[in-house]
Each structure stands twice: as C-alpha cells, then as structure tokens.
Amino acid sequence: MLIAIPDxxxxxxxxxxxxxxDAGEWVDGNVTSGPQSALAKRNRQLPEDSAAxxxxxxxxxDALGRTPLFVxxxxxLKVFPPLFSRYAGGEDxxxxxxxxxxxxxxxxFRLRSDLSATLFLEDxxxxxxxxxxxxxxxGPQSVKLPAGHLVLYPAxxxxxxxxxxxxxxxASFFWLQSMVRDDGERRTLFELDxxxxxxxxDRGQGDGPVVQLTGVYHNxxxxxxxx
Length: 227
Ligand code: NI
What we know:
The longest helix is centred in the C-terminal third of the chain and has 21 residues, at 183-203. This protein is of the alpha+beta class and 227 residues long. The chain folds into two domains: 3-178, Jelly Rolls (Sandwich), CATH 2.60.120; 183-224, DNA Excision Repair, Uvrb, Chain A (Irregular). It is built from six helices and 16 strands. Strands 1, 2, 3, 4, 5, 9, 13 and 16 form an eight-stranded antiparallel sheet that branches. The structure holds nickel (II) ion (NI). Nickel (II) ion binds at residues 96, 98, 159.
C-alpha cells in the first residue's frame, strides 16, 4: 500500500526544519548505502549522527506522533531516526530496494524495515525531476508531494528518484518497523479503521454497531500485532 499523508509539518515547523538542516554539513550520500545502492545513488546527505539531523529528526518524529493518519496507516513499533537528502544538478538515485534490516551505528538499535517513508521538504514548483517512482502491484507510481507531506510505501518495493534537472530536491527519509509485519493485514486494519471513523462520525462513537466494529478492529490487531 502506498499512502500520502498530508501536512505532517505545518509551515512553521517546515521552516524550522529547513533552517536547521540547511545550516548542517552535507556529505556524499553513499555513507548510508549498502554496496548495491552505492552504485545507484548520487546525492548528498546529512551525517546521521550530526546535531542538525538529530534535532530536525526529533521534530519530525514528534510531528508523526501527532498525525493520526500516519499512526493508523503505519501502526509503528520502531522508527529509524530520520535522515536527510538533497539532489541537484542531475543527481538521482537509480532503481534499488532498501535494506531489510537497519542498524544504528554505535548502538544496539535495529529494526526490520517494513515501511519506507519520504517527507518532502521543498516546494515541488521549485525543482524539476526528483520524483520518487515506486514499483507497486499496479505498476510504477510517481510521487512528488508538497513540502511537509509524506509518502509511506512498502520497504519491499523497488523504487528510484529521477534526476533533478532544475532547482534542488530536499527531503527526509526513514524506515519503520510496523507492529503488523504483513502489508495486506496492515492495509485491512487501516481500511477498517477509516470505515469505522466514517460511520462513527455519522452515528456517534456510542452507536452499537460502531462499538462492535471497533471491537473487531482491536481483536484483529490483537491477532496480527507484535507489540
Ligand atoms: Ni530507497
């Protein structure tokens, strides 16, 4: 499932994140790559241990926790600290798959990447190219969202970033381990949750069938989730 989550950052938070990261020291993006993706990647990143990445990443994690659509869609168990990338002057990232297991250097933190996320941090009118193209079951999906919006997609998918031919693409990207490992089960829970919210807004949270369906949601979550 590929889902766009609007307005993770509002204009003030976006400006703050950009001010922090724009003042950071950017390095060759291959510092986080495995040997295969290193062949394909041409961009710049903030070192993951840099103060700028940690401060801006913390703001993003806080914002995600306040975004119900993200929580409902991802059912996050662990989130890798957000990383930051810039592409300009024809830079791109060829077709690749993200590593299944991510470890944070110098710590015992690790996660299984069930979902990948890109949070766009630049106005799409300010650059050409730079689309995130995700191969899913319905074919390639090209994603280029307004600044402050996020796309969530299965980490198992092949994906690429097209060359940036004008301006600069600035984004945050990260991985997460979901409480529900299976994409189909997670999608079923998300669709059920959305439907319950819609019915509850018509009939009220105390409506009998709404209460019963909420019970079904939690009982499915109990069967499928690791917490
Ligand atoms: Ni990737």
